[in-house]
Amino acid sequence: MLAAGAAISAGGMLASSGAADSAAGEETERPDPDLDPDREADWPSYRGGAGHARYLEDGPEFDPGSLETAWAADHDGSVAVADGVVYATTEDGVVALDAADGEPVWETDAVAASDPAVAGDGVYLCGEEVVALDRSDGNVRWESSLEPTEWTSSHTVAHDGVYVVADGSLYALDIEDGSVRWRRDGAAFVPSFGANRPKDYAFTTGTAAANGVVYAGTRGGLLAFDPETGDEVWREQRQYMGRRDNEIFATSEAVLVEGYTTVDCGIHDPETGEYRGPAPMESPAEPAVGTDVHLADSGQAFAAGSIDGGGERWQVSGRLTYGQGVICGDTVYVYLRSNGDPNEVPHHKELVAFDKHDGTENWTLSRNTAPVGEIRAISDETMYVDYEGQLVALRELED
Questions:
Q1: Is 398 in a helix, a strand, or coil?
Q2: With 0-12 CB in 10 A as exposed, 13-18 as middle and 19+ as buried, what is 56?
Q3: Which of 19, 189, 242, 339 is most exposed, with minimal Cβ within 10 Å?
C-alpha cells in the first residue's frame, strides 16, 4: 500500500505529491524560479509567451481616439511578434511581416502548421508534427518525427526546448535539431474513488512554461517538470482534466488549467501545485491570467476573478462571448460580442478597455466605426486584431 500523499511517478519512483520528499524528509530541489523563458519580446509566442497567459506586466496604454490602421494583411490564426517582425500563418502557409509597414519579409508554403513561437534563430509551429523554420528566411530547419496517430497538443518553446504532448506522451525536443531530449509516457495517481492502487494516466493537456518548470496535466492531476532533465518537481492530484486538449496558462503567481465542464477549471499555486479553487469558464473561451486577476467567460457573463481562487472580482453581465482578452498593465483589453440578442447586452462587437481591478469601463471602440476584432497580440505600442480575416495593426501614427 502506498502511504498517503504519495504516488508512483512515470519512471516508477516514489514521488511526493507536494514540495517535500516524503521518503527522505528533505525539500525537493527545484529549478530556479526566476528563470524567465521570455527574453526576446513582449509577444514571442502565440499566446503572448511560454506561459500562454496573454499577460503583459508593463504593457502599453492605448487612446482609442488616436488608434489608426497602420497596415493590414491576410492571416489565419494566432501570431507572434519579436524584434520588429510579425510571424503569422495564412491559408497557404507561414508569413513574416515587417511590423512597421506590414510588408512581407518572407513567405513559405512548405508548412502545414499553426501557432508560431519565436526563440533564438527559429520559428516553431505545430500541426501533426512540430516544425522549425529559419527565422531569417522561412526555410525548414527540422521537423519532428513523433508520428502521432491520434492527437498532438499545443506546444511551448522555452529553455532551449520545445515541449509538446503527442498521443498521451510528453516530449521535450531539442530546439536545435528536434531530437527527443526526454520523454514521459504518463503519470500514476491513486484515484480519489474506487480501487486504492495507482492508475496510469496519459497526458491530456497542452504545456506551459514559467517559474523554471514545464507544466503538463493528466486526468489524474497536474505536474511540473524540470525542463532540462524531465525530473518531476511536484504533482497535485486533481481529477478534473477530463477532456483531451485542455490548456494550461501560467504566470509567476498562478497556474490555470482548463477542465471538463464550465465549473471544473482550476487555479493552482505555481510553486507547489496546491489547488486554490475553481475558475468558472465556458470552453472554448480562452482565458488570460495575470499576477492578481484572471479573465473568464462563464457563458452568462464576462468576468475577472481572483487568482487566489477567492471568486469573482467583477463582471459584465449578459451572454457575451469574449475573444482573446489581454491583461495589459492595469487594463484589460477585450473584444466582446453578444451570444444572444445583441440589443439586450452591452458591448456587442466592441473592443473594450476595463480597469482590471474593479471593471470600470475606460473606453469602447465599436466595429461599426473601426476595424476591431479579437486581439491577436500587443507589442511595441501596437495592437494586432483580427478584422474579417485580416490582421490589422492599430497604433498611434506619427504625422
A1: coil
A2: buried
A3: 242
